[in-house]
């Protein structure tokens, strides 16, 4: 199964650049509930944002002859480490994006999508390394996969090694990817915070 690598990689690269900007003041309520996904995010210790200054959306330029709708990859929100002023210029951050799965790949499984992401990143980013076998986890009522990897990100003529965790799940014809990333030089201190925040995501079922 193949997905368009330019779409996903362009959004992720833009997000890394966005995270160098000054974040907005965090809200008092430190949880985000996405009712349509049945998920609650606890973002204590993070600053919340919704786009490149407020929102970023990348639209593919190509149109299919059979389907003239533009396929959007959307940034649902992002979180920036509120305790950090990164020397590398790349902020420790978490972003949550969604991507509609093309109709011809509608029967794709979670394993299919994860495999396509590995192939995509290997082609787009320098020295991409998957650090462990993807783990099957539950995210609320969703079957998901947890990935850990490293790669080189080039910005302003300089390469920075990035360490990232990603949670991936599929729902109703869309793929959802939560990426939690930090420069490798800061992973020893920031890695536990990234993973801990991801592991606090839970379902919104009432007791």
From TrEMBL:
<protein>
    <recommendedName>
        <fullName>Lipoprotein</fullName>
    </recommendedName>
</protein>
């Amino acid at each position: 199964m193949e997905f368009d690598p330019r779409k996903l990689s362009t959004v992720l690269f833009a997000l890394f650049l966005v995270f160098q900007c000054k974040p907005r003041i965090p809200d008092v309520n430190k949880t985000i509930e996405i009712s349509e996904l049945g998920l609650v995010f606890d973002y204590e210790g993070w600053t919340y944002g919704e786009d490149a200054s407020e929102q970023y959306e990348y639209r593919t330029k190509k149109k299919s002859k059979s389907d003239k709708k533009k396929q959007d990859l959307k940034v649902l929100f992002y979180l920036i480490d509120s305790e950090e002023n990164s020397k590398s210029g790349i902020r420790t951050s978490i972003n949550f994006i969604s991507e509609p799965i093309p109709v011809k790949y509608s029967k794709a499984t979670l394993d299919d999508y994860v495999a396509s992401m590995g192939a995509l990143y290997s082609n787009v980013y320098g020295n991409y390394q998957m650090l462990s076998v993807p783990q099957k986890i539950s995210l609320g009522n969703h079957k998901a996969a947890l990935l850990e990897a490293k790669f080189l990100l080039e910005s302003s003529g300089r390469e920075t090694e990035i360490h990232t965790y990603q949670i991936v799940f599929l729902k109703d014809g869309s793929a959802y990817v939560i990426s939690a990333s930090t420069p490798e030089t800061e992973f020893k201190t920031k890695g536990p915070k990234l993973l801990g925040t991801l592991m606090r995501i839970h379902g919104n079922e009432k007791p």
